[in-house]
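Hi R.,

Here's the chain you asked about this morning:
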Amino acid sequence: MRNQRGFSLLEVLVAFAILAMSLGVLYQAFGGSLRNLSVAGEYTSAMIIAESKLAEVADQVPLRPGSEQGEENGFRWKVDVLHYEELEDPPRSFKPYRLHVEVSWGQGRRYVLDTLRLSDK
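And the predicted structure, written out as tokens:
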């Protein structure tokens, strides 16, 4: 009997199969991370647009009920200013308003901000 050196063909094939499965798992994990990073960036952009629209409306003196909408960088936004009548004892010199901002994009993704503001009557 002679001493054998090296790997048999079967051992090499098993090693390649394990390597291929490992690379497939790593590829899926990396691809999922890139998708999540893209979605996080979209939500961040939507949040910035919503906060800027909310700040624009909140700076109006006095606030007036109504609705406004538009599009910016592929994001659709809508701002609603509504009378807020749910307070039991509203302040006498100020009127409460509900500000509702909704930013939507893609296939059903949306970001919503709601707040209350007081304005002169």
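DSSP finds one helix and four strands in the chain.

Let me know if you need anything else.
M.
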